[in-house]
Specification:
The complex is a heterodimer of chains A (308) and B (315). Chain A is an all-alpha fold. Chain A contains 13 helices and no strands. In chain A, helix 1 runs antiparallel to helix 13, helix 5 crosses helix 8 and helix 5 runs parallel beside helix 13. The longest helix of chain A is centred in the middle third of the chain and has 36 residues. In chain A, 36% of the residues are buried. Chain B starts with a helix and ends in a 5-residue tail after the last helix. Chain B is globular, with a radius of gyration of 23 Å. The chains are: A mainly alpha (308), B mainly alpha (315). At the A-B interface, helix 1, helix 6, helix 7, helix 11 and helix 12 of A face helix 8, helix 9, helix 14 and helix 16 of B.
């Protein structure tokens, strides 16, 4: 187990380096002349250009500049944002808790409702409830999330006044609707995954054996079937948690939640390269760590899987 | 119910021996896996509905003027936000453009982007997955880590950054379909490549591949004649489903203001324009959003039906 984790951690290193380098390169290429950008339309004094070029290593080739960036990262220095000159680590510290609140609500919502709906539908295959779940999940998957978010905001926020329309001033309630909208798409996938998995497991030999032994139906579905059919669901949930914690550009933008996704989008719009690379680095780290956690959870759920 | 025993021996399996082509031409009652699947498919209502919808959508994309005679670019402010009527079935949007005509004409952009991006990323996935799965070892390690790296980039972030590099001479975002196509293709192939790789690994261990190899078949022949046709199903299914998703993502990019822009008409552009006045009129949003949803739905249903038909285990 320990060796497996170590090997996986080592495998992560090239992935993290590769991804951040890719984003770093793309962002650098997209920006044009950064010194000129600082000055807008005005001409840049030659002495200042020389000084800035030296300070930010702008004359060096891309890999060298990336090297400087990484060595800063390793010392905990995410760099400074171009706009407003805030340290990026400070921006992350402000934004991430907001994202985590929305993500937490979304995660609980999709896990509880999704698994319940999926398991019930899988047990009553072909019945009314099953068709209802199938139909409603298909609808949620088919409607683009920004349409879902906007209509929810208009009807539940503006017209009915049940939820705050946008912003984060009203505590829990202001995160609730964004969380529900954000979780709804994954909820649909989870419900369908759980349904298929339960339906498949109900046909297994061990269920017949359990029935023949005279176990109660509650115990068969609640213990035997559930544990076996939740493995694919857990995989999905884990990967999804990684995505959720990385912020949701669309949802955060609709509801004006100043989280990671919101900051990312702003950084792209105003071409704030350092902030963009900083946030993406954080996302990549979260993503690969979650992937590892999911693989370890596998072994917990399914004793047949052992990591040497 | 087609007979199950037949599905175990595919024509490709039989073709492993050089004599096979003549063999399979002999008149015999047993059908191939593909024929089974087709027979199975045409009897599924879900498949028929889905392909019917897709057929109509393709007609719309090919001959928009046949469906809508009104000019989609003709907008008159005097009829702004008028409700649906006999003249304009879907009403008029905020600028007084005919929503019906625009929805029909938008089909071409949305479906072109969806189809081309899916085909592009499926081809990348096919090639990389096949090579990685077939050769294994360091080739596999290299490609797999490459997949991990691109997958690590959050989809929307990557798409927005790529789209930002598409600018005209004056430095404005172009807003045409090429940037969107590139972004969706470059960022869309990874999960398909993973599926392809794992099916290729499974397939290359099959007996008929070993047989062909021991008969002296070349690497190229093994790869493209024996492994590829038998490892294609999961990729096709996933590509079908993701085609629908891509159409929805195209709309999302327009919503964020980085995707396709006016004067090109796409469903995403229409939805984005309708959102500003959504409190006064819902119909300019409802119709394009409905078309996106139905299209996504149709492709998901098609993918599901094809998977069920091609997977003998589910029979």
């Amino acid at each position: 187990m320990g060796r497996y984790v170590l090997r996986r951690l080592l495998q992560m290193v090239p992935v993290i380096i590769g991804t951040t380098f890719l984003v770093f390169a793309l962002v650098t290429e997209m920006g044009g002349d950064p010194v000129q950008n600082l000055y807008g339309e005005r001409p840049v004094p030659e002495s200042i250009r020389v000084a800035l070029t030296a300070q930010y290593h702008l004359d060096d080739p891309l890999p060298v500049r990336y090297g400087y960036y990484v060595s800063g990262l390793l010392q905990g220095d995410f760099g400074t944002s171009l706009s407003g000159s805030r340290p990026i680590s400070e921006m992350i510290a402000d934004a991430w808790p907001e994202t985590l609140k929305v993500a937490g609500i979304a995660f609980v919502f999709e896990m509880v409702v999704g698994v319940a709906a999926g398991v019930l539908a899988g047990m009553r295959r072909g019945k009314f409830l099953d068709n209802l779940v199938l139909l409603s999940t298909l609808t949620v998957i088919a409607v683009p999330i920004f349409v879902l978010g906007q209509t929810a905001q208009i009807f539940l926020g503006v017209k009915a006044g049940i939820f705050p329309v946008s912003g984060t001033n009203e505590g829990f309630m202001s995160y609730l609707l964004p969380g529900l909208v954000l979780g709804s798409v994954s909820l649909a996938y989870i419900a369908r995954l759980a349904r298929a998995s339960v339906a498949e497991n109900l046909r297994m030999d061990y269920v017949r054996t359990a029935k023949a032994k005279g176990l109660s139906p509650t115990r068969i579905t609640g213990v035997h079937v559930l544990r076996n059919s939740l493995i694919p669901v857990v995989t999905f949930l884990g990967a999804d948690l990684g995505t959720l914690m990385g912020g949701a550009i669309v949802t955060e933008r609709i509801f004006n939640i100043p989280g990671v996704g919101y900051n990312l989008f702003k950084a792209i719009q105003i071409e704030d390269g350092p902030a963009l690379v900083g946030f993406v680095t954080l996302l990549v780290l979260v993503y690969v760590v979650m992937a590892l956690v999911v693989d370890l959870l596998y072994a917990v759920l399914d004793p047949r899987i052992r990591y040497a | 119910m087609p007979d199950v025993t037949n599905t175990a021996v595919t024509p490709e399996a039989a073709a492993a021996t050089p004599a096979a082509p003549q063999l399979s031409k002999k008149p015999e009652k047993s059908r191939s896996l593909l024929q089974d699947a087709v027979r199975d498919l045409v009897r599924r209502p879900l498949f028929l509905i889905a392909s019917g919808i897709i057929f109509v959508l393709l007609l719309m994309a090919a001959f928009p003027t046949f469906f809508a005679s009104a000019d989609p670019q003709l907008c008159e402010l005097s009829r702004s936000l008028q409700k649906p009527s006999a003249d304009a079935w879907f009403g008029y949007d905020a600028r007084g453009c005919d929503v019906y005509a625009r929805t029909i004409h938008g089909a071409r952009t949305s479906i072109t982007v969806g189809v081309l991006a899916t085909v592009g990323s499926a081809l990348i996935a096919l090639l990389l997955g096949l090579v990685a799965g077939f050769y294994g070892r360091w080739v596999d390690a290299l490609i797999s880590r490459g997949i991990d790296i691109v997958m690590g980039i959050p989809f929307l972030v990557g798409a927005i950054v790529i789209l930002n590099t598409f600018r005209d001479d004056d430095g404005f975002r172009t807003g045409g379909i090429w940037g969107v196509l590139t972004a969706l293709t470059v960022l869309g192939w990874m999960s398909m490549a993973r599926i392809m790789r794992s099916t290729v690994i499974q397939t290359k261990q099959a007996d008929y591949v070993t047989a062909a190899r021991s008969l002296g078949a070349s690497t190229g022949r093994l790869m493209f004649r024996h492994v590829l046709p038998n490892a294609l199903t999961p990729l096709i299914v996933l590509a079908t489903i993701s085609l629908g998703v891509i159409i929805s993502v195209e709309a999302t990019l327009s919503f964020l203001g980085v995707g396709i822009q006016e004067p090109t008409i796409s469903w995403g552009v229409m939805i984005n324009q309708s959102l500003g006045r959504i409190r006064e009129a819902l119909h300019p949003l409802l119709f394009p959003a409905g078309f996106v949803s139905v299209t996504v739905l149709a492709f998901i249903m098609l993918g599901d039906a094809v998977r069920d038909a091609l997977d003998p285990k589910l029979r």
